[in-house]
Amino acid sequence: MRGVRQAGRIAVAVLGCALAAGAGATVRKGPMPPGSGHARNVARLLTIANATYDPMDPGRVPPDASRAVVGLKNELRDLVAESIASFPVDRVEPWAVRKRVADALATAGIELGVERPDDVEETNPWTVREVGIVRPPEHHDLLAALVTLDVPCAIDRSLYVFERGETSWSPVLTLDSGPYGSVFAAWELQYAISPPDVSGHWFVAAVAVHPWCSSTIGDKTFEIVRPGPDPASPDVLLRIRDSVRYTEPCEVDATRDTVTLRFTSSYALETTGREFIRHYRVEGTTVRRSGPLAQTPGFFIDEWLALPGSEAERWMAPRADPSVRAWHDVLEQPGDYRLDFEDPCGDGKTWEVGLSKWPPTCGDDAPEPPGPGLTNRVYFTVREVGDDYELVAVDSSPSPTCLRPTHACERPRPGDDETEEAP
Prior knowledge:
Blueprint: H1 2-22, H2 36-51, H3 63-85, H4 94-106, H5 118-123, E1 127-134, E2 142-151, E3 154-164, E4 169-175, E5 188-193, E6 204-210, E7 217-230, E8 233-245, E9 251-254, E10 258-267, E11 270-283, E12 286-290, H6 297-306, H7 309-312, H8 323-331, E13 337-344, E14 350-357, E15 377-385, E16 388-395
Helix pairs in contact: 2-3, 2-4, 3-4
């Protein structure tokens, strides 16, 4: 029996060497780099994830693979931590940490930043694509590690922030998707770390796009967090989930007390996409939208209708008609309305924005109003204020002080003559 066990151990060792050689590992001489044990665990867990992959159902992540991915991320986090700890506490440089991480992974046959052949990617879609290490601007005592995994159809990113103490570096904040049964819950993460304020406090603004294998429109999660009681439980100041267009990148920037988020998506008053630029002000544990709310009068109305009532009041003119708030409550879910026109008024600072029941039908074919208190057309009077706008009035009739509105029922139809020739 002892001989059988010994033979089995020899066979396993030979198989392990063969697998390592097949993965492209090289034979190293001398001591192994820090974190090599974690790297071997990463390779083992990747094998489990890839063994469960079904090309007929690429988005599904079976339970065994889900557990492997959670373990894989933990091993990568600990690999980064061990690589940081291998340097004197006051001599840690991002490029050197990244090199040690890459060296450790290379011992397990995993090469960072290498384009894989299509046939390998199709049969083994799970791998570690990159581990980026940076020192955030104006932070001498922070390191941020962004770990990128290749997953079926997409990528999945996790953020680990480490802080220097007197004798060591410790993890202080983690942003991660958590376990999932579908790659559509993975995080294609972009982030920004604010510079420290006068008290030394900082926050992270992050946007995570949730991938989809067969669509260009999907969901994203945007959040602003500060370090919490433990790295995996940050204090959430703001969290919003809405749609995004995959074909365009999301961008997020942060200053000491502001955040700017840019993304492209379809919007409530139109079926095509537009660029969104949203501004936020961070004050302690409070986050509020700030101006400019949008770049055009029509987009301003789209954003205004999406705001909660208390926030919407901040963009109402001081002498706005009292009915404006009631219109907001009625139109908060625009439904079948679409942006029809935005026309300038005489003073050059005022605009009239029209919404119409969509698709527009005119004359005897005009539809019934879409709901109680609604009309087929709604007219918004909007005034420019600096680089922003404010809402002055909302009505079911056009403003007499603005130009004649060019709503859909009054535009020339294709083939119609716009002018009559003189006899």
